[in-house]
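The following record pairs a protein chain with its ligand, histidyl-adenosine monophosphate.
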Amino acid sequence: MSLRAVKGMKDILPDEISNWHRLENAFRNRVEGYGFREVRFPIVEPTALFVRSIGETTDIVEKEMYTFTDRGDKSLTLRPEGTASAVRAYVQHSVQAREPVTKWYYIGPMYRRERPAKGRYRQFYQAGIEVFGDPGPYVDAEVIDMVVGFIASLGISEVEVLVNSIGGPETREKYRDALLGYLTPYRTELCPDCQRRMDANPLRVLDCKVPRCAEIAAGAPSILKHLTDDDRAHFDGLQETLTILGTPYRVDGSLVRGLDYYSRTLFEVLGKGEGLGAQNALLGGGRYDQMVKSLDGPDTPAIGFAMGLERLLMAMSEAVTESHVDVFIVAAQAGVRGQATLLGRELRDAGLRVESDLRGGSLKSQLRRADKIDARIAMILGESEVEEGVVQLKDLKNKTQEQVPRADAAARIHALLSD
Ligand code: HAM
């Protein structure tokens, strides 16, 4: 058997990469416009970080982590998401001592051993943001509005924005009793995981993907009816601000999300267009006001979200097929290949993207290659051109050809490209 990539993990080949670059650059531009700065974390973290933050009874921690023991007998895990690392880094570097509000963004691969499906991978890429130090609710509305606008700017128009509040610890304590009261008669119908979760963390039952559990969960009382006055005021403030911003949204009282660290605001954006399939959550996020403290940091409110880049690419309407080459240099005879190589360097120094086939070959085959890679211009150099100090420029899009002095070639190509 020949070697293949690990199941659920994909290569991204150069033909696909221009869409990735477009998406990543658009994300950077958008969030930097709101004051976010990039942060990069290790891909491997101590296992305890995820167990303590994401939660012992979550699917991620119970079933999906890539955990291994390193040679020093430490338990390490490939990061399944970025928020836990962001909090660890925020605490480790005492960032709160330097600035009252911190706005970070990140882009990178995450690892979850889920069942592979369309739009669901074991290595996938997230772009996310985290804000530390602002209790909201205005910032909650601003980040939701920011990402909804971002998704629209990608040409993804059919989306649904869901928001909910699961309140703070006091709300959840009250709700826990109501939820247990509802779930107890169904106990034996729940899956074994949920029966365990009922004792450890009944809220997790609401997030179970087993069909019968999901059916039972659908009838559960809404947490929104149990919000404390403060939590209710926070949620009202979020909705009022979203209304002022004109951000479309729908309150979904059943949205709980699969991570334990959340409190108050939760949100998800679902893609409704074709091409996404069942894995239609483009992004998810929420507030996690207790997490910094629970990881031994100062009491700091926080909110963030992460988007699945593969899913966004699937939902983006048109694929961009951008040429990666401006000029293809054709050496008409073997004797001018050295000059052609020098010319290539000169043009690159002038800011152009240049390709050539240094193996040589016939004029025709070189021009075919220029066409194939979608070069805009073919620059032809033969013995007579070298003697006269000129080059031939063939505009492959407009089907024109002209002779220009070699010294003017770069400027003329720039002019042709900007036409
Ligand atoms: P999450 O909902 O687990 O949240 O993941 C966020 C997004 O990552 C999902 O909406 C989906 O687009 C994408 N995603 C998740 N798993 C997969 C997968 N197996 N294959 C492909 N895409 C996937 C978080 O990760 C939180 N850290 C978000 C957050 C940031 N909350 C606060 N700050």
